[in-house]
Amino acid sequence: MTAKDFDIDRAIALLREAVAPFPKAAMFQLAEEGFDSLYEQLIACIISIRTYDEVSVPVSQRLFARARSPEQMVELEVKDILTLIQGTTFAENKAPQIRQISEQILDEFGGDLPADPEVLMQFKGVGPKCAHLALGVALGYPCISVDVHVHRVTNRWGYVQTKSPEKTMTALEAKLPQPYWVEINRLLVPFGKHICTGNRPKCRRCPLADMCDRVGVVKAT
């Protein structure tokens, strides 16, 4: 199979069924629970950086129980935010970032966060992955968020051939049909965690096995 031959429509349909039994990716789960504003999604993504979904979801829920808007967040001291987000990786860095971002949104945008990835990426600690994911989940904004799972799986398929998540994002923007841009992250995070794992992927139970080039796979189960 060549990358050109990969049937992405069939793959997406199979993925939807394959990941249905698994917990949803953190940002999508939080959105389903009603934490679906652009601000909430941005803050939740900051919390999720280098943190397992099993931790970032309850941490985000705990913070949002106290503050769900920039106005409410700036009422908290940094030490209060730090207490609320304990458990997330680099909490000591994220707490002042969250408060600073909230202040900036109020000072520079009157509390109304623009739906613009370039604006979001100007905030400290916010890169393309977070900006794109927050916009995609909150607003359906057409952008691709590439994390380790999206990068690994699409390269393992042979659908793209890149060496970094940033280059994978560029390659997918040029190739992946736009209706799948947000969904690809929703599907490949649980798929990459439970089936197409980094080490010893579960190829025997993978519904895409006949489509996959298994690039870089040494041992599989």
Description:
By secondary structure, the chain is an all-alpha fold. It starts with 7 loop residues before the first helix and ends in a 27-residue tail after the last helix. The radius of gyration is 18 Å and the shape is elongated. It is 55% helix and 0% strand. Helix 2 runs parallel beside helix 4 (53-64), helix 3 (38-48) crosses helix 4 (53-64) and helix 6 packs across helix 7 (91-109). The longest helix has 19 residues, at 91-109. The protein contains 12 helices and no strands.
Secondary structure elements and their pairing?
Blueprint: H1 8-19, H2 26-32, H3 38-48, H4 53-64, H5 70-73, H6 78-84, H7 91-109, H8 117-120, H9 128-139, H10 148-157, H11 165-175, H12 183-194
Helix pairs in contact: 1-12, 2-3, 2-4, 3-4, 3-9, 6-7, 10-12
Q: What percent of residues are in strands?
A: under 5%
Summarize model confidence as the mean pLDDT: 96
Oligomerization category of the chains in this entry: single chain
> Runs with pLDDT <50, length 5+?
none
User: SSE order in H/E notation?
Assistant: HHHHHHHHHHHH
The helix count comes to 12
Helix residue percentage = 40-55%
**End-to-end C-alpha gap:** 22 Å
Question: Mind summarizing the main beta sheet?
Answer: none
Helix-strand category: mainly alpha
Shape descriptor reads: elongated
Query: Using only CA atoms, what is the Rg?
Result: 18 Å
